[in-house]
Write a structure and sequence with these properties.
Elements lengths: L2 E5 L2 E3 L5 E8 L3 E10 L6 E6 L5 E3 L7 E6 L4 E6 L8 E10 L7 E4 L3 E5 L2
Parallel strand pairs: 2-11
Antiparallel strand pairs: 1-3, 3-8, 4-5, 4-9, 5-6, 7-8, 9-10, 9-11
């Protein structure tokens, strides 16, 4: 079955960097891949997206600090996060538009999330 598995979260000091990864498996094809985050008590927030032709889009709060990249052959997307701030503390989720098998419709899938904590 389709799986999106995130990794790379953890504890980092303010001003530090962290790279998250998300690998898809059990798929036929994958289109746009995205990163979201959800801080305690807040709604899930869109951060960035990248299409299969590498067109990217960022929300203003992260566009100068975060970079999204992908490897189509590996069905993997990364989120490089620099100059992290305490407000970046959240659970980070991968989301992707996936065709799970031939003849099946494209559907959005979510990963399980990975915790990022920015604290001194």
């Amino acid at each position: 079955q389709v799986q999106l598995v995130e990794s790379g979260g953890g504890l980092v000091q303010p001003g530090g960097s962290l790279t998250l990864s998300c690998a898809a498996s059990g798929i036929f094809s994958i289109n746009t891949m995205r990163w979201y985050r959800q801080a305690p008590g807040k709604q899930r927030e869109f951060l960035t997206s990248i299409t299969s032709s590498w067109t990217t889009n960022y929300t203003d709060s992260v566009k100068d600090r975060f970079t999204i990249t992908r490897d189509n052959a590996k069905s993997t997307v990364w989120l490089q996060m620099n100059n992290l701030k305490p407000d970046d503390t959240a659970v980070y989720y991968c989301n992707a538009d996936i065709v799970p098998a031939v003849g099946r419709p494209m559907t959005a899938y979510w990963g399980q999330g990975t915790q990022v904590t920015v604290s001194s």
